[in-house]
Design a protein that fits this description.
Helix content: 40-55%
Number of helices: 4
Mean pLDDT: 88
Radius of gyration: 11 Å
Low-confidence stretches: none
Shape: globular
Structural class: mainly alpha
Strand content: under 5%
Number of strands: 0
Protein backbone atom coordinates (compact mmCIF):
# COMPACT_ATOMS: atom_id res chain seq x y z
CA UNK A 1 0.00 0.00 0.00
CA UNK A 2 1.35 3.43 -0.95
CA UNK A 3 1.97 6.11 1.68
CA UNK A 4 -0.85 8.29 0.28
CA UNK A 5 -3.28 5.37 0.53
CA UNK A 6 -2.25 4.77 4.13
CA UNK A 7 -2.81 8.44 4.97
CA UNK A 8 -6.27 8.44 3.37
CA UNK A 9 -7.23 5.24 5.21
CA UNK A 10 -6.04 6.75 8.49
CA UNK A 11 -8.18 9.82 7.83
CA UNK A 12 -11.20 7.55 7.29
CA UNK A 13 -10.49 5.82 10.61
CA UNK A 14 -10.18 9.17 12.38
CA UNK A 15 -13.51 10.32 10.94
CA UNK A 16 -15.11 7.16 12.33
CA UNK A 17 -13.64 8.01 15.74
CA UNK A 18 -15.19 11.50 15.72
CA UNK A 19 -17.53 12.43 12.89
CA UNK A 20 -18.01 15.94 14.32
CA UNK A 21 -14.48 16.75 13.17
CA UNK A 22 -14.80 15.17 9.72
CA UNK A 23 -14.04 18.37 7.76
CA UNK A 24 -10.93 19.10 9.84
CA UNK A 25 -9.76 15.49 9.54
CA UNK A 26 -10.28 15.27 5.80
CA UNK A 27 -8.30 18.49 5.31
CA UNK A 28 -5.57 17.82 7.86
CA UNK A 29 -1.85 17.63 7.17
CA UNK A 30 0.75 15.23 8.54
CA UNK A 31 1.69 17.76 11.22
CA UNK A 32 -1.91 18.19 12.44
CA UNK A 33 -2.16 17.43 16.14
CA UNK A 34 -4.62 14.63 16.82
CA UNK A 35 -5.88 16.18 20.06
CA UNK A 36 -5.82 19.93 19.54
CA UNK A 37 -6.33 20.22 15.77
CA UNK A 38 -8.58 17.20 15.26
CA UNK A 39 -10.30 17.04 18.66
CA UNK A 40 -9.53 13.40 19.37
CA UNK A 41 -10.26 12.38 22.96
CA UNK A 42 -8.51 9.60 24.87
CA UNK A 43 -11.43 7.30 24.02
CA UNK A 44 -11.12 8.32 20.38
CA UNK A 45 -7.39 7.61 20.50
CA UNK A 46 -7.97 4.14 21.93
CA UNK A 47 -10.61 3.40 19.28
CA UNK A 48 -8.23 4.65 16.59
CA UNK A 49 -5.37 2.43 17.75
CA UNK A 50 -7.63 -0.64 17.82
CA UNK A 51 -9.05 0.02 14.36
CA UNK A 52 -5.59 0.72 12.91
CA UNK A 53 -4.35 -2.60 14.27
CA UNK A 54 -7.34 -4.46 12.82
CA UNK A 55 -7.33 -2.64 9.47
CA UNK A 56 -3.62 -2.98 8.76
CA UNK A 57 -3.06 -6.31 10.52
CA UNK A 58 -0.39 -4.89 12.81
CA UNK A 59 0.23 -4.73 16.56
CA UNK A 60 1.60 -1.73 18.40
CA UNK A 61 4.00 -2.98 21.06
CA UNK A 62 5.32 -0.63 23.72
CA UNK A 63 3.52 2.34 22.23
CA UNK A 64 1.69 4.79 24.47
CA UNK A 65 -1.00 7.32 23.69
CA UNK A 66 1.58 10.11 23.81
CA UNK A 67 3.47 8.48 20.93
CA UNK A 68 0.62 9.54 18.64
CA UNK A 69 0.73 13.33 18.68
CA UNK A 70 0.25 14.00 14.94
CA UNK A 71 -1.06 12.17 11.92
CA UNK A 72 2.55 11.92 10.75
CA UNK A 73 3.46 10.12 14.00
CA UNK A 74 0.87 7.45 13.26
CA UNK A 75 2.10 7.01 9.69
CA UNK A 76 5.69 6.79 10.92
CA UNK A 77 4.99 3.97 13.37
Amino acid sequence: MKREEIIEKLKEILVQADERMSDAIRNCELDSDLRTDLGLTSVGMLYTVIVIEETFGIRFENVGMNDFATLGDVVGL
